[in-house]
Structure formats: structure tokens, C-alpha cells
Fold this protein.
Amino acid sequence: MPDDIAIRYAGVEKRLGRQQVLRGVDLEIRRGECLVVIGRSGGGKSVLLKHLIGLMKPDAGRIEVDGQDVVPLSEVQLVPIRKKIGIVFQGGALFDSLDVEANLAFPLREEKSIPEAEIADRVRDALDAVGMLGHEKKMPGELSGGMKKRVALARAIIRRPEAVLYDEPTTGLDPIMADSIDQLIVRTRERYGVTSVVVTHDMHSAYTIAHRIAMLHEGRIYTVDTVDRIRNSSDPVIHRFVNGISSEGPSP
Ligand SMILES: Nc1ncnc2c1ncn2[C@@H]1O[C@H](COP(=O)(O)OP(=O)(O)OP(=O)(O)O)[C@@H](O)[C@H]1O
Ligand SMILES: [Mg+2]
């Protein structure tokens, strides 16, 4: 049923400098699911996400959002796509010179048609959803790493997107804060019914939140499978990755 597919990569290739980063990525993401993408550092996971909202263009292949190929779209044509897809960048990417409230209001003010009173309401709702009410006037520099991730998440959902992409949402956080971000990802998906794509190397987090896990390996999707099947896989590439065994060590 093609209608069940929110996002589709087909034969996506990308060379950056001298490196062939993506070598024919095929991946289908179902509407409303939480798909976790795992893979080695430097393997192209962030590059994969950037292609979806047109921040990078592939050398070959199609990338469909709701059946529409986004590859040929211009910056202006990409605006509605970027409204449909919220992204929590690796590192947060908040505006350092704007306080929390202004960071959240920014994407709404850009639309130029939303009254200030409604903007204030939606900022409050989004902060409430991530447990950050009361921190409106803080500057990003005054927030902890976990708080920054929460604000970044609030900003990604403020335009009520159909899908949210999370790039390493728990990296660098203590286990308790990481767990609370995981819960937030799950709740956001349940509350707004959003399709969620989460890039992580945190296997604990992946097992907690994923419906399915996709492994990016050597520029292709090596496998897409359920949590149980990935966790118990005897395939050496998957087994080594999920158990953190370097290829220099003894065989499993
Ligand atoms: N704008 C760019 N210009 C040139 N090379 C780039 C660019 N962005 C990424 N790369 C290269 O593409 C490769 C994949 O990068 P990417 O950031 O997607 O890795 P990743 O899988 O997200 O890694 P990590 O888990 O460490 O975040 C890397 O070798 C990186 O150096
Ligand atoms: Mg990355």
C-alpha cells in the first residue's frame, strides 16, 4: 500500500569530496512509525537526513515525501516540505542570540500570517510538551545540553509537522536525561501522530523507542528489521555494531 509510506529513498547516491558517502540508499519509512537509523560514525546518517529537506541534493536517485520527489525542488518549492518535516539537528542549532521563547517563535513568525497571540500560545504549548515551561527568557548559553535538546525538539514540533527527524538526540547526555528525551520522542509521536526518524548510535535508546531499526553500512541500507531481530541478529556486521565490537577484536 503506497499510501502507508511517508518517506521513500530510492537509489540515492551522494559523493562528498573524494568519498562516495551514499552508494544507492533504498529505504521506506511508514506513516506514523518510529524508524531508528544506526550506523558507524561518519557513515552518512546526517547526510541522509539533510537530503530529505533539500539541504543537500543527491547525485542520483529519488527522495519522496508523501509521494512527491523533493530532489528537483527549488528553495521556494521546498518551503512546504520543510513545514511538513521538523528536524532536531545534531547539536541543537538554536540561535545563540535569541532567548528560548524567540527561538521557538522564529519559525512561526517566518510564516508572516500567524497573529502574535497565537504564536505565544503555541510557544507555551510546545514548551509544556517538552517540560520547559518557565525557561522562556533563558539564552541558549544558559541551558544544559539536555535542556538545549528539549528546546530544539520543541522548535521542531511547533509547526505541527507530519514527520520529525532527530539527529543524535541523546548523544552526550547522562542516562537519566537520555531516557527522558526518549520518552519525549515516544510521547511526541503518540500525541501528534508524527512519523519519527531517529539517527543514533545509542542502542539502549534505539531499543526503547524504535518500531523498526535500519542499519546504514558502507553507503547502503544493510538491513531494516524489528528491534528483536536486530538485537538477536547473528549477522556479523549487525552483531558487531549493536554490541560495540570493533573488527580488530576476536570474531563473535
Ligand atoms: N558538507 C560536507 N562537505 C564535505 N563532506 C561532508 C559534508 N558533510 C558530511 N561530509 C562527509 O560525509 C561523511 C558522512 O558524514 P555524516 O555527517 O553524514 O556522518 P554521520 O553518519 O552522521 O556521523 P556521526 O555519527 O559522527 O554524526 C563524512 O565523511 C563527512 O566528512
Ligand atoms: Mg551525524
Residues 9 and 235 are 24 Å apart (CA to CA). Strands lie at 5-16, 19-30, 34-38, 60-65, 68-69, 85-88, 163-167, 195-199, 212-217, 220-226. The longest strand covers residues 5-16.
